[in-house]
Amino acid sequence: MMVTIKVIAILIFVFGAARAVEPTNWRPFLPNGFPGALTGAAIVFFTYIGFDSVSTAAEECRRPQRDLPIGIIASLIICATLYVAVAVVLTGIANWRTLNNAAPVVNALRELGFDSIRRWVGAARLSAC
Asked: What was the pLDDT predicted at 87?
């Protein structure tokens, strides 16, 4: 249930805020250079550590040799797609300098005046902590 709430909040943000994307916010493309991109990649890498927990469900699979790789790869693809979608929309709706705060998504939505989307995303974040 918690995963469903989180995914719905992500999709509401991505599709709701996508109409406000300004391509000028993506210039410069790598404001902190390649070292900044490597730092971000290292942080995101650690968010994928939990995917090995899918393997604990092996005893409940009918065909674990087939089902586990499909489950792990599918969850990685879905999560990577959601990460990229949120990053593209968030950096497209707000200047990168304004995102260094505790709640960048909610604050960016507040600045745009997207209060209904902000409430849904904020409520989903609080309800699924």
From this structure: 93
DSSP per-residue letters across 11-45: HHHHHHHGGG--GGGG-SSSTTHHHHHHHHHHHHH
Q: Quote the pTM value.
A: 0.84
Q: Are 106 and 118 in contact (CB under 8 A)?
A: yes
Spatial separation of the C-alpha atoms in residues 93 and 25, rounded to whole Å:
7
Confidence class for position 128, pLDDT limits 50, 70, 90: low
Q: Which two tokens stand for residue 71?
A: 């489950």
Q: What average pLDDT score do residues 74-95 get?
A: 92
Helix and strand counts by DSSP (H, E) for the chain: 5, 0
